[in-house]
Structures are given as C-alpha cells and as structure tokens.
Amino acid sequence: MPKFSTQFAIIEHIKNFIKKSGRPWRKRDDGNDISVGIAKRIQKKNYERSLKGLDNTTYPPYLRIAEQLQVNNEQIFCAAVFQLTETARNMKRYRIHIIHILSEARKNADLNAAQLKALDNALKELSEV
Fold first, then answer.
1. Which residues touch 29 (CB under 8 Å, ≥6 apart)?
2. How much is the pTM?
3. Is the dihedral of CA 37, 39, 41, 47 positive or negative?
4. Per-residue confidence (pLDDT) for residue 6, from 0 to 100
5. Looking at residues 97-114, what average pLDDT do you find?
6. Which end of the chain is more exposed for a tag (fewer CB within 10 A), N or C?
7. How far is CA 112 from CA 4, 11, 73, 104, 107, in A?
8. Buried-exposed string 40-60: b where 16+ CB fall within 10 A, e elsewhere
9. At 100, is the pLDDT very low, low, confident or very high (cuts 50, 70, 90)?
C-alpha cells in the first residue's frame, strides 16, 4: 500500500498546486477578449500568409498520382490510372486536365498490353461521362 500512496501523493500535490495558484491554466473569467499585441500578431501573420499565395506543390492533389504513370510496375500504373479516372469522374473541374494527362501517357512506347488496355478503358469511360 505505501507504493500506491507515494504515486498518488504526487498527483495530490499537483492538484493542490493548481487549486492554490488560482486559475491561470483554466478558462478565463474575463470573456473572450484578446490583447492588442496578440491581435496585431494575428493580423501580421495573416498578411504574410496572404502574400505567399497558393502552394502549388501539392495542388491539385491528383498531380502526385499522375507521377506514378511513369513507373514501369504494371500494378502501380493501373492503380494510378484507376485513381485518376475516379477523380475525373467525381470532380468535373479536373476532368479535362486528367484526360490530357492520360492521353499523354498513352504516347509512351514502353507500355505493355495491359497498361494500354487500362488507359484505353479509362479514356473511353471519361469520354462517355
């Protein structure tokens, strides 16, 4: 029993410390007001963020998948074609660009019959949508 009492003694000391120190770590009573300095920092950070513009490294998201069309592995290639087809079918704004990407991938001479069939099926499916 002394082993457990020493473990819980630390917890009791922490509880008492928090009770005696007031309410600095808990919800403030003065409402949701923020100081002038904090408001200026928030405005400065938002202004700096607005000057940076849009991060084009991962936008639009399907560009990462389109990179997998350069892989020689048949499963990875077919999975990328499937994901791009699903993205184009569900998001109309990306459809034209994805069709262009797939038609450019069709021109690759290193593709085997299964990869060409997957590309043809995807392009046929997207042209019908």
1. 23
2. 0.56
3. negative
4. 63
5. 90
6. N
7. 68, 66, 10, 15, 12
8. eeeeeeeeeeeeeeeeeeeee
9. very high
Task: Dig out the tokens for 91 from the structure.
Answer: 């998001």
Please say whether the beta carbons of 119 and 106 come within 8 A. yes
Range of weakest confidence among 14-28, 54-68, 74-88, 99-113: 14-28
For residue 32, with 0-12 CB atoms within 10 Å meaning exposed, 13-18 middle and 19 or more buried, which class applies?
exposed
Contacts of 34 (CB under 8 A, 6+ apart): 42
* Phi, psi of 26, rounded to the nearest 5 degrees: -105, -175
Helix (H) or strand (E) holding 70: none
Question: How far is Cα 57 from Cα 11, in angstroms, rounded to an integer?
Answer: 48
The encoded tokens of residue 121 equal: 């099926």
